[in-house]
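Apologies for my clumsy wording, but are you able to produce some protein sequence, whichever is easiest, and the tokens describing how it folds?
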Amino acid sequence: MNAIYGKNLDLNLLRVFLVVAEAGSVTEAASRLYLTQPAVSAALRRLASAVGAPLFVRAGRGIALTARGQRLLASARPHLEALVEAALSPVTFDPKTSERTVRIGLSDANEAWLLPPLLRALAEEAPRLRLIVTPVQFRTVADALASAAVDLAVTVADELPAATRRQTLFTGGFVCLFDPRRARVAKRLSLESYLAHDHVIVSYNGDLRGIVEDMLGHQRRVRVSVPTFHSIGAIVDGSALLATVPAMVAREIIALHPCLRTAELPFALGRTPMELLWRSAVEDDEAIRFVRGLVARVAKAVEPAVRGRGSGAD
């Protein structure tokens, strides 16, 4: 590209040249270009100087191309037509044939319920489109979007850059997950009983505080803190530990550990929506828009499982 710029050739001169060659008259070309005749003549002189040879000669009351001009016309016309086509024609996206790769950021709470049905939908509707999944959560999603590390993300989020678009997928909630074979949990769990149990929590900070401590000020007896929800089911299964998890996460865990049960919490946690996020810069990207539509469709299908409860992450 630097070599092209080094030629110091104004590409607008080629546009003037093509119109003059097509019109066969400087006067007619000036009319089509909405320029004066002297301006068109000056553009042709500049182009001839850059090429190093005359491009037109007088022919009766009009002008005709020289041999050099004919070669330039044959070479320049398809390239300029392609540039105009590229600039003005809408990009076509066919999901059946697209081989695009879309980067999606997911919090660990969303992988289990979203990825399997999303991949099944892609297999049917966009079999060549590929996904790269990157871990994000509410503290990291803003940077991931701003740096274009991800094209879209699904997580809870707080403040985001003004250029971020957001769509609420559902508003779910928290439940208490436990193994009834080991943990004695009443049908209506009291705060006293809840705090008397040992707990496993998910902490993105790597400490012993979760949403219950941060939002409500209740200090639980935390036996273990883990960085993701992936091991919660295996930890609770066969133990007396309680886990406070989003209802959507509990649903996926119980599908793998059917012996586990859930109970309503003895307090209310805030209702935080699970959101689909993307940068306004890719708003018109048809491939990303297609994947956003599939994500929204999957979320709508699973929404009844968490309807009527508040959401978040432990």
